[in-house]
Amino acid sequence: MATLSLLEKLRKTRETRLPVGDDGRLQLIIRRPAIMDHIRHRLRSEIVYDWYTPMVVGWVGVIEQDILPGGTDDVVEFDHALAVEWIGDRPAVVSALTDYCQKLIDDYTAAQDALKKN
Fold it and tell me: Residue 58 falls within a domain, yes or no?
């Protein structure tokens, strides 16, 4: 097993899982951006969807049937381009993703503000 670099370990600390779909079987692995990345985004006024999709860094439980009607039961390895295409055609997933990512950012910012006050 490959050893994670310190940078990879740091990024992993910002990862959480977002269940999507009716049964919660599918999960997107989301990495909260660094606060400076969030500030850059706000200054550039990017389209919200384009801002949040890079935060999707993996998935769990996705099978071909989830991607293609009539697909197989084979597990699909995460591919970012495929994930973005799949998410982009599912308004409920887009909504859940944007709400969840914004909450991650808001919660982190609030926690940092609370630390400053102590």
Answer: yes
In total, how many domains does the chain have? 1
Rounded CA separation 20/41 (Å): 25
**Phi, psi of 25, deg, nearest 5:** -65, -35
Residues sharing a CB contact under 8 Å with residue 64, sequence separation 6 or more, in sequence order: 71, 72, 73, 74, 76
Backbone angles phi, psi at 16, to 5 degrees: -140, 175
Domain region containing 32: 20-117
Is 9 part of a structural domain of the chain? no
Using a CB cutoff of 8 Å and minimum separation of 24, what contacts does 106-115 make?
108/32, 108/35, 109/35, 112/35
Which pTM value belongs to this model? 0.71
pLDDT digits (tens, 9 = 90+) for 75-88: 999 999 999 889 88
